[in-house]
């Protein structure tokens, strides 16, 4: 059966509410909004700090904020949110409040799924290879942390079958919700880092499939970040790459010269080149690969002088490239296109309206979605 409509799922960051752990690690009241507000332009013409339209620095421990996001997304044709899921162990989960509010408030009209960011959170100076340093600009030096040797903040521990069952049981009410995104009677669940102990993940997902079938599903439709998993599991797992799929180097001479003098290590990339790489890869994608695009990118709020910034963005270009990507997806008979992101303000990757572009990115995306699905 051919796909009639291509549905856009936008990655969704649930970080915008205070939690005790963030207070402890990065300062009382820390969310990405703190980093976003404090960002200074790194060069002439640099669009920083980014400011939400009407200075809407929302807090996601409030159902009305999520209701507003969902209403806006629906108005502009977004099918659903891919909500980042931070389950570190049976004893530690973080930033789960927005998803739980969404589950509790059935009137919030948005489809959703989980993207499990299965990494340990660490300090920037930690030697841990598979870890995420969430807020480098707000990290403390080793001198401030006399009793910490590893730099580990929240440790990912898959545990045993009992732990896997606890995790599954937590997810089950979400899976049963009619808004949860499913494929062939299977809830879609993305595991962002499939290479992080793939053997344990393989056992866990097989076990979860057994549990899901007992609960009336036909299993779980697993996605992962790259192709390593389907090959290891004999094609049983589907996966989606997350954009930008590759970083195409681009530096304007004057900017390069300026930063060499300032001894800054900001990496500059070109919007058109990044998107052309994505489209080239998309045309060659296997039948088991969902396609993914991005809105824009500038993670200087989080990374300061070590930022990666994609230059020469515009709503018009975004619309042109998304139309091409969705056209490819439709020709390949793929139902979903993933988009980075709905609200990654700390990485400059967001669809939400701001004071510079207003609703322009949303408006152009809706136009593209309507044209492709006409």
Automatic annotation (TrEMBL):
Lineage: Bacteria, Bacillati, Bacillota, Clostridia, Lachnospirales
Protein name: Glycosyl transferase
Species the sequence originates in: Roseburia inulinivorans
Entries under Pfam families matching the protein: Glyco_tran_WbsX
Top-rank taxon, per record: Bacteria
């Amino acid at each position: 059966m051919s796909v009639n409509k291509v549905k856009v799922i936008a990655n969704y960051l649930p970080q915008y509410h205070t939690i005790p752990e963030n207070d402890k690690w990065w300062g009382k009241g820390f969310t990405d909004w703190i980093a976003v507000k404090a960002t200074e332009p790194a060069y002439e013409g640099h669009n920083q700090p980014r400011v939400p339209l009407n200075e809407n620095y929302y807090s996601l421990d409030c159902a009305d904020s999520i209701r507003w996001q969902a209403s806006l997304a629906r108005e502009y044709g977004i099918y659903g949110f891919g909500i980042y899921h931070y389950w570190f162990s049976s004893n530690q989960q973080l930033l789960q409040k927005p998803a739980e509010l969404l589950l509790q408030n059935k009137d919030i009209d948005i489809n959703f799924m989980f993207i499990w960011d299965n990494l340990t959170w660490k300090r920037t100076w930690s030697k841990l290879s598979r870890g995420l340093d969430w807020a480098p600009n707000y990290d403390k030096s080793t001198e401030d942390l006399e009793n910490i040797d590893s730099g580990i903040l929240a440790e990912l521990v898959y545990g045993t079958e009992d732990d896997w069952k606890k995790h599954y049981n937590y997810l089950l009410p979400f899976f049963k919700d009619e808004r949860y995104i499913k494929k062939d009677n299977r809830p879609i669940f993305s595991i962002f880092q499939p290479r992080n102990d793939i053997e344990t993940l393989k056992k866990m997902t097989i076990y979860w499939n057994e549990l899901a079938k007992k609960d009336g599903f036909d299993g779980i439709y697993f996605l992962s970040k790259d192709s390593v998993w389907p090959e290891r599991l004999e094609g049983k797992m589907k996966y989606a790459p997350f954009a930008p799929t590759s970083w195409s180097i681009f530096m304007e001479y004057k900017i390069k010269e300026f930063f060499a003098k300032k001894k800054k290590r900001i990496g500059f990339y070109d919007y058109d080149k990044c998107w052309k790489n994505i489209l080239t890869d998309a045309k060659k994608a296997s039948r088991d690969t969902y396609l993914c695009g991005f809105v824009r990118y500038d993670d200087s709020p989080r990374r300061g002088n070590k930022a990666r910034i994609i230059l020469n963005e515009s709503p018009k270009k975004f619309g042109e490239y998304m139309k091409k990507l969705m056209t490819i997806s439709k020709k390949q008979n793929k139902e979903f296109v993933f988009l980075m992101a709905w609200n990654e303000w700390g990485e400059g990757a967001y669809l939400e309206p701001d004071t510079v572009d207003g609703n322009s990115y949303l408006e152009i995306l809706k136009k593209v979605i309507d044209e492709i699905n006409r």
